[in-house]
Amino acid sequence: MGQTNPPFMSGVPELLLLQQLAQREMYGYELVRSIRLVTGEAISLGEGVIYPVLHSLERNGALKAKRKAVAGRTRVYYSLTAKGRKRLQRLQSEWQRIQSGITAALESPGHA
User: Fold this and answer.
1) Does 1 have pLDDT greater than 50?
2) Residue 29 contacts by C-beta under 8 Å, 6 or more apart in sequence?
3) Taking CA 58 as the corner, what is the angle to CA 54 and CA 10, rounded to the nearest 5 degrees?
4) Above 90 in pLDDT, residue 4?
Protein backbone atom coordinates (compact mmCIF):
# COMPACT_ATOMS: atom_id res chain seq x y z
CA MET A 1 0.00 0.00 0.00
CA GLY A 2 1.24 3.51 -0.82
CA GLN A 3 2.18 6.24 1.59
CA THR A 4 -0.90 7.99 3.00
CA ASN A 5 0.24 11.56 2.39
CA PRO A 6 3.41 11.68 0.30
CA PRO A 7 5.26 15.03 0.17
CA PHE A 8 4.05 15.82 -3.36
CA MET A 9 0.46 16.00 -2.03
CA SER A 10 0.97 19.59 -0.87
CA GLY A 11 -1.93 21.67 -2.21
CA VAL A 12 -4.00 18.63 -3.21
CA PRO A 13 -6.37 18.80 -0.20
CA GLU A 14 -7.33 22.37 -1.11
CA LEU A 15 -7.99 21.42 -4.72
CA LEU A 16 -10.08 18.38 -3.76
CA LEU A 17 -12.08 20.25 -1.13
CA LEU A 18 -12.90 23.08 -3.52
CA GLN A 19 -13.83 20.61 -6.25
CA GLN A 20 -16.21 18.72 -3.97
CA LEU A 21 -17.77 21.93 -2.65
CA ALA A 22 -18.32 23.13 -6.22
CA GLN A 23 -20.86 20.29 -6.48
CA ARG A 24 -22.82 21.12 -3.31
CA GLU A 25 -22.41 22.28 0.28
CA MET A 26 -21.06 19.67 2.67
CA TYR A 27 -19.87 19.30 6.26
CA GLY A 28 -16.39 18.15 7.26
CA TYR A 29 -16.77 14.40 7.67
CA GLU A 30 -18.96 14.27 4.58
CA LEU A 31 -16.06 15.82 2.66
CA VAL A 32 -13.65 13.22 4.04
CA ARG A 33 -15.92 10.40 2.81
CA SER A 34 -16.63 12.08 -0.52
CA ILE A 35 -12.94 12.57 -1.35
CA ARG A 36 -12.20 8.96 -0.48
CA LEU A 37 -15.06 7.82 -2.72
CA VAL A 38 -14.33 10.02 -5.76
CA THR A 39 -10.63 9.13 -5.71
CA GLY A 40 -11.34 5.40 -5.56
CA GLU A 41 -9.78 5.32 -2.08
CA ALA A 42 -6.44 6.48 -3.55
CA ILE A 43 -6.59 9.59 -1.37
CA SER A 44 -7.80 9.51 2.20
CA LEU A 45 -7.65 12.81 4.05
CA GLY A 46 -8.39 12.81 7.75
CA GLU A 47 -10.30 15.49 9.58
CA GLY A 48 -6.98 16.73 10.98
CA VAL A 49 -5.97 17.61 7.43
CA ILE A 50 -9.19 19.00 6.04
CA TYR A 51 -10.37 21.22 8.90
CA PRO A 52 -7.28 23.48 8.87
CA VAL A 53 -7.67 23.83 5.07
CA LEU A 54 -11.40 24.56 5.39
CA HIS A 55 -10.77 27.18 8.08
CA SER A 56 -8.02 28.81 6.00
CA LEU A 57 -10.25 28.92 2.91
CA GLU A 58 -13.04 30.43 4.99
CA ARG A 59 -10.70 33.11 6.43
CA ASN A 60 -9.56 33.95 2.90
CA GLY A 61 -13.14 34.33 1.65
CA ALA A 62 -13.15 31.26 -0.63
CA LEU A 63 -15.76 29.48 1.52
CA LYS A 64 -18.64 30.42 3.71
CA ALA A 65 -19.72 28.34 6.67
CA LYS A 66 -23.26 27.91 7.93
CA ARG A 67 -24.38 26.04 11.05
CA LYS A 68 -27.36 23.73 10.62
CA ALA A 69 -29.19 21.51 13.06
CA VAL A 70 -29.43 17.97 11.68
CA ALA A 71 -30.91 15.08 13.65
CA GLY A 72 -30.39 16.90 16.94
CA ARG A 73 -26.78 17.83 16.13
CA THR A 74 -25.30 21.03 14.86
CA ARG A 75 -23.08 20.68 11.81
CA VAL A 76 -21.07 23.30 9.97
CA TYR A 77 -21.75 23.18 6.25
CA TYR A 78 -19.29 24.76 3.85
CA SER A 79 -20.03 26.20 0.42
CA LEU A 80 -18.01 28.02 -2.23
CA THR A 81 -18.10 31.75 -2.71
CA ALA A 82 -17.37 33.49 -6.01
CA LYS A 83 -13.78 33.90 -4.81
CA GLY A 84 -13.65 30.16 -4.09
CA ARG A 85 -14.85 29.32 -7.61
CA LYS A 86 -12.11 31.51 -9.08
CA ARG A 87 -9.53 29.85 -6.83
CA LEU A 88 -10.75 26.42 -7.94
CA GLN A 89 -10.41 27.39 -11.62
CA ARG A 90 -6.83 28.58 -11.04
CA LEU A 91 -5.90 25.42 -9.14
CA GLN A 92 -7.47 23.19 -11.80
CA SER A 93 -5.51 24.94 -14.56
CA GLU A 94 -2.28 24.68 -12.60
CA TRP A 95 -2.88 21.01 -11.78
CA GLN A 96 -3.59 20.21 -15.45
CA ARG A 97 -0.40 22.00 -16.50
CA ILE A 98 1.70 20.10 -13.96
CA GLN A 99 -0.02 16.79 -14.73
CA SER A 100 0.71 17.23 -18.46
CA GLY A 101 4.36 17.99 -17.72
CA ILE A 102 4.79 14.99 -15.44
CA THR A 103 3.01 12.69 -17.90
CA ALA A 104 5.28 13.93 -20.71
CA ALA A 105 8.37 13.33 -18.57
CA LEU A 106 7.26 9.83 -17.56
CA GLU A 107 6.45 8.84 -21.14
CA SER A 108 9.54 10.42 -22.66
CA PRO A 109 12.56 8.26 -23.44
CA GLY A 110 15.55 9.39 -21.41
CA HIS A 111 17.49 12.34 -22.85
CA ALA A 112 20.83 12.43 -21.12
Assistant:
1) no
2) 47
3) 40
4) no
- Name the pTM for this structure: 0.84
- The pLDDT tens digits of the residues spanning 34-83 come to 999 999 999 999 889 999 999 999 999 999 999 999 889 999 999 999 99
Measure the CA–CA gap between 89 and 29, rounded to whole angstroms: 24
- Angle of CA points 81, 38, 68, to nearest 5°: 45
Q: How many CB atoms lie within 10 A of CB 27?
A: 19
In order of their start, the domains of the chain are 11-103 (1.10.10.10)
CA–CA dist 27, 51 (Å, integer): 10
Closest CA to 53 of 25, 70, 31, 73: 31
